[in-house]
Design a protein that fits this description.
Distance between the termini: 29 Å
CATH superfamily: Acid Proteases
Number of strands: 9
Radius of gyration: 14 Å
């Protein structure tokens, strides 16, 4: 059986639900040690800022740069049949993906 897209280096995007809000372009990155969500997606999902546990921490990003976290948030995540309470790091960034899923 041959795959229709033989370039296995393409990013893997999934569709997910965050607090019953449909989110497309959830990027799976098994090399990442954290899950990331942007602040703008939290606003769309109706998550109030009071749910964010404030903790300013720097993390390494692409290109050896550093980004400062706004904090952490626990969200109800559903991807296909998997449904769990998931911890996300909140970043105020503009990226191509809506969620970065790095840890199970």
């Amino acid at each position: 059986m041959e795959a229709p897209y033989p370039d296995h280096r393409c990013s893997l995007y999934l569709e997910a639900m965050i607090n019953d809000v449909h989110v497309h372009k959830a990027l799976v990155d098994t090399g990442s040690s954290i899950n990331i969500i942007s602040l703008s997606i939290l606003v769309v999902a109706g998550v109030p800022p009071s749910q964010i546990t404030k903790k300013e921490t720097s993390i390494a990003s692409f290109g050896n740069g550093a980004k400062t976290l706004s904090g952490y948030v626990q969200l109800d995540l559903k991807v296909g049949p998997i449904h769990s309470l998931t911890r996300f790091c909140v970043l105020n960034i503009d990226v191509n993906y809506r969620l970065l899923l790095g840890t199970p």
